[in-house]
Amino acid sequence: MMSFTQFLQTVSTETLKRRSDGVTASTIASILSRNTLSIEDFYLLLSDGASGMLEEMAQKARSVTRKQFGNSIFLFTPLYISNICDNHCPYCSFAKQHSIVRKHLSLDEIKQEADSIAAKGIRHILVLTGESRRSASPEYIRSAVEILRERFSSITIEVYALTSDEYKMLIDAGVDGLTIYQETYNRELFKSLHSGGPKADYDFRINAPQRAAEAGMRNVALGALYGLDDWRMEAFVSGLHAYYLQNKFPSLEVSVSFPRLRPQAGEFSTAHIVSDRQFVQMLAATRLFLPYAGVTLSTRESKRFRSAVLPIGITKISAGVSTAVGGHSGDSSTAQFEIADSRSVLQVKSDLLQEGFQPVMHDWNYAYVR
Length: 370
Ligand code: SF4
Prior knowledge:
single chain, TIM Barrel, 8-stranded parallel barrel, 16 helices, globular, binds iron/sulfur cluster
């Protein structure tokens, strides 16, 4: 079976770059008049030449989103269960070299955190760990899932890349979703940012969503971390990754996300800041290329910005968030990054209703197949 990296080699970015040089407003208007976009169309929508047509792109993306997803917005909350990490990612507070408050929840502490989140009405949980097999082993994650499945109807994991057998074990325990970010699709940059830890294997990570799908995962979410490299290329390759998986696994629900770097422990700074306009361009371009894909928006973004971009293509948002281990019930630890939207679940629900959206707590698709 062709892997995603093999598929990528069939796409000539050199040719696409040459074509994007001549992009005009009428090229973009012609793309926007079509219902199905090609890979080349997607590339051109992300180009500098398309930035003058942002309003038209956003309007079309808004109407495509409403047609496919109505006014529903799924809510979820992340649950950090361990921040011990063997990697040195310079953009993350949990990196091994940082002197932070480390915490690894016992199963009793996981129950407390889960009860506290469930009491707010949340039914979809995202479980996160640092990347350390010796601390947060697959068996530890499975034990956490066994606790969570009693309280939540949908469980997604955001942990280090696993083998197919490990994904299968967690699916059997009750996991239905995988979130995994490639951080950067630029292989050389990835190597330089992740040397010296288990995350260094670019191919093992990039093929994780495919392994999970082959193991029977119902949904996968992927993307890059924006701020590490050129946003246009990262958004393009993320979109192709989702496109590849949708074609390869027609029953798989595929989502993308565009997390922008936030302040964290350490001194990492970026030369690749993504502006709000650029964010809107990649969101609209991705929605138009992938009309059926879910798009998640996290509390890395402010309330104001989240409200502004919700109609353009977002289908799922987090609420009542803490990025610290133990942040929902007990003594907390160092947060992974600073959040920009600290609204409670109740506040987010009420704001969504006021903005004309229907907050959805329970994913009935998965509740019935359990
Ligand atoms: S991004 Fe993940 S792997 Fe890297 S330091 Fe943070 S928790 Fe560890």
